Amino acid sequence: MYHAVMGVDDNEERAIACAQAVADLPGAGSDARVTIIHSFTDNPTGASAPQIGSVREATEYLEGEGVEVTVTESSGDPAEQILDVAESEDANLIVVAGRKRSPTGKALFGSVTQSVILNADRPVMVAGDTDD
């Protein structure tokens, strides 16, 4: 079974882009398992990760594609948390979202994405924007 760890922030469009990228992988569906991680840097409402719209949307999309999904949450530096979960779960792949940038900023990813790419000890897939 193929296992991916997918970092999801509060943006639903980026979460769906990551979910679509995972569902489009060869052999996805019943042969794939995804751990979605949402790292809280500030949580004044006391919500849990499954209550966050982006996490809920990504989970529903993946489950609709036949992918087994688990959701985990953490607090602290999101990049460190994504890398820690990927290592502890022995994931085959880390999936994070890219962001649209200005022409001069296209060489740079967001700080979380860039940190994951630079510090990962396994493949990292950066998902683009959705067509919607």
Note down, in words, how this protein is organized.
It is a single chain. With 132 residues, the chain is of the alpha/beta class. It has one domain (2-127): Rossmann fold (3-Layer(aba) Sandwich). Helix content is 33%, strand content 24%. A 5-stranded parallel beta sheet has the order 3-2-1-4-5, with helices on both faces. β1 (2-7), α1 (12-23) and β2 form a beta-alpha-beta unit. It starts with a strand and ends in a 5-residue tail after the last strand. Belongs to the universal stress protein A family. InterPro entries: Rossmann-like_a/b/a_fold, Universal_stress_UspA, UspA.
How are the SSEs ordered, and which strands pair?
Blueprint lengths: L1 E6 L4 H12 L8 E9 L12 H12 L3 E8 L2 H11 L4 E5 L13 H9 L4 E4 L5
Parallel strand pairs: 1-2, 1-4, 2-3, 4-5
Helix pairs in contact: 1-2, 3-4
